[in-house]
Amino acid sequence: MATAFTKKSLKLETTTVEPAVTPPPANNTSFVKKPKLASKSKKREIPEGLWTKCPKCSTMVFDKELDENLKVCTQCQHHFPISSRERIHSLVETCTFEEMDAEMTSVDVLSFTGVASYTSKLQKYQQETGLNDAILTGLAKLGDYRVGLGVMDFKFLGGSMGSVVGEKLTRLIERATEKRLPLLIISTSGGARMYEGMFSLMQMAKTCAALAYHAQARLPYISVLTNPTTAGVMASYASVGDLIIAEPGAMIGFAGPRVIKDTTQAELPPGFQTAEFLLDHGLIDAIVPRKELKAKLISYLGFLSNGHTPAVVPQA
Asked: Which residue among 26, 139, 256, 259 is least packed, with the fewest CB closer than 10 Å?
């Protein structure tokens, strides 16, 4: 009995294999890797309407802070576009702007049709901007000086100059001449409005003729160029001021760089259409940051009015 028990126990010990410690075969293709656990972290989404990314320095700027800084980047001083009403609010004294010709609207004289009709485009931009055309004109008080003020808005058809823009500016200039007021025009434009053909081009001569009478009356005219000021506007009233100033980095010129390069077949110097380049070459008189513009304009008006009939509002 003892001998049989011993053999049985030995047999069990030699045949028993523990599968847990047996390594898998080297060529086993059925071996499956343990799947990775999915990350539970989610990308944070920034709500729209709270932050704006600066196109120059890529800094995320809080919109409220940007508005308080007159749409100027707090890091690199990049000047964002600003609407005509915002600009007027930043310059004139409270409740002193008296708008002129507010109801004047453009007419589709040529019955222009393309991807969309001219009339439908006008209606679209009127709804989006709350403006009837690309400029606001009126009389206002800037410091102690009462001035004729015209401010263009690039959001309305690229600030293009059509019959209404030319007519409103001409009426403003004539009113300023009649009342012996200094004149201030702030421009931002892609040029003449081709939807109106030659009627838009005629505004170049009409506005410059009105400015000539204003100059004969020995009244100051300050032209402010913002980004961008180009083509027919730059070729007419924007470039004939007694004093021409610009915002930093503003694009100023007649045609675009590609058109000029193809026409002249010459390499163009870097930044040749910026305000800084044109200041160095004598086309403009000064570059003034937006936050300093009001104080500088008041100073310039005082200098230009010296020796002429001052248009100063009497103190109450």
From this structure: 26
